[in-house]
Amino acid sequence: MRSWSWKVGEVAGIGVYMHATFLLLIGWVALSNWLPGRSLQAAVAGVVFVLALFVCVVLHELGHALTARRYDIKTRDITLLPIGGVARLERMPDDPRQELWVALAGPAVSLATAAGLFLVVLLTAGLEPLTQLSVAAGSFLGRLMMVNLFLALFNMIPAFPMDGGRVLRSLLALRLEYTQATQLAASLGQAIAFLFGLLGLFTNPFLVFIALFVWLGAQQEAGMVQMKSALGGIPVSKAMLTYVQTLTPQDTLGRAVESILAGSQQDFPVVDDSRVVGVLTRRDLMVALARFGQEGLVSDVMQRDFQVVDSSDMLETASMRLQECGCHTLPVTHGGQLVGLVTMDNVGEFLMIQSALASAQRARA
Q1: Boundaries of CATH 3.10.580.10 in the chain?
Q2: Fewest C-beta in 10 Å: which of 63, 149, 201, 343?
Q3: Tell me, which fold does domain 236-352 have in CATH?
Q4: Model confidence pLDDT, tens digit, residues 36-49
């Protein structure tokens, strides 16, 4: 998600990014407000309203982020998309009660924002009749108030990836096993998505888009939790690659090219005096070859800031670390020595093997 995104600010130590597609939304709003009367003022007013709306979205996401911080969970960043905002937490709380508070914090902030706007409108210009207020009609502050109410209510729909799906899952997890609670919440979310899609076919086509968004979100959440459950309790040593080619800082890029062509390994630990001092990725190698040719040195190209995992760590930890760093490969060490590599590919292969063995065991039973 960070690709095609630009940092627009930082709040409470959390970077706020704007995705490139958000510019398309601003352009569409400006054009749709300008076309009816060819009014530049109307176009600017439309854009200002969208920007104000997304300030409210950032506040909503900060509600999640700052509540998660209370439980020692960091937020990597907040990204603004045309469909809303996404706060990327490093992990979800393991305690269902903590997840409940984190999930509720966003809608609570939106409701508090709506209440604050209600007071401002009431004290300044008097409240318009409720029948005249909507997301598209009324004064600037009145519309912004209604949008925040809509944001809170929409996010409380009990379906992933909305906050309501996480609220439902956390409540179910108080009595059920976490994976089972997730599966039930995901199934309900997909049923809601089906109803949205069916309704959208006969009314508003935008509901079909929402249905697809909810369906895929529920499917992804269930898959992630199932994988986390499958990897729990299994040490990295059971799934890591043990036949590993290494490089030294003094090796040339030509030596790295030979290693890539000789096998299927894409990223290479760089070892000096039996210690891992860097990682040369396939992507960095290709960029460096275009600049320096095969005579360049590995030491000039390798990543010196890299993640490692111990062979005694659980595969769940390794999987989370791979996702957090956005890297393809993690060196596996034990006692400071390189003992293997772990990648998302071989984690996936390990899961497929375990699934096949479990199927064979069930067939014999």
Answers
A1: 236-352
A2: 201
A3: CBS-domain (3.10.580)
A4: 877 888 888 888 88
